[in-house]
Write a structure and sequence with these properties.
three-stranded antiparallel β-sheet, 176 residues, single chain, mainly alpha, elongated, 2 domains, 8% strand, Ribosomal Protein S8, Chain: A, domain 1
């Protein structure tokens, strides 16, 4: 299996180098690279999912072709050939082990769903305490500026959806 994650990082480097040299990158190429990088990241976490890996590979190969063509036209064939070799090597490298998201957070009961968010606007929402009670959630400000919210998964999701909508409405009315 090809290592799409490392190839995506190499393509990122190539694109940034081209931008630094003053070469414009078409928006669709940057968007495709973002999509390929996302799929490669998902594929790295689910190595048995062949469909994701093949989609990531197809997108990244298309991005590679586009970036190398842009590099050849803007800088030269030797430069593009050098990058083509680097990118080919990254596809063959062993994938790095994936760091898993921690499943245990101190103070959160086992089985509770949790999310950490960074927001000062959350504590400005009217009726926050009442909503937390309605959803049976626990909320804690943390020292690093994040807020830990935990409870049943459907309650956390519903609460975040409701709060997000209220913040959007306030922003639309010029409130935030």
């Amino acid at each position: 299996m090809k290592n799409c994650f490392n190839a995506a990082k190499a393509l990122d480097e190539l694109m940034l180098e081209l931008i630094e040299k003053g070469i414009k990158i078409p928006r669709h190429v940057a968007d495709d690279l973002k999509a390929g990088r996302s799929l490669a990241s998902i594929g790295q976490r689910s190595p048995d999912d062949v469909a994701i890996a093949s989609k990531a590979l197809a997108i990244l190969e298309n991005v590679e072709m586009n970036l190398l063509s842009i590099a050849e036209a803007g800088i030269g064939g030797e430069y593009a050939d050098g990058w083509q070799g680097k990118i080919a090597e990254t596809y063959q490298e062993e994938p790095e082990p994936v760091a898993k998201r921690p499943t245990f957070v101190a103070g959160v009961p086992k089985g509770d769903h949790w999310v950490r968010i960074e927001t000062k606007d959350l504590f400005e929402v009217e009726g926050l305490e009442q909503r937390l009670g309605e959803y049976s959630l626990t909320i804690r400000k943390q020292d690093d500026g994040f807020t830990l919210i935990h409870g049943k998964k459907e309650d956390v999701t519903g609460f975040l959806r409701e709060i997000r909508e209220e913040i959007r409405q306030r922003m639309g009315k010029g409130g935030v």
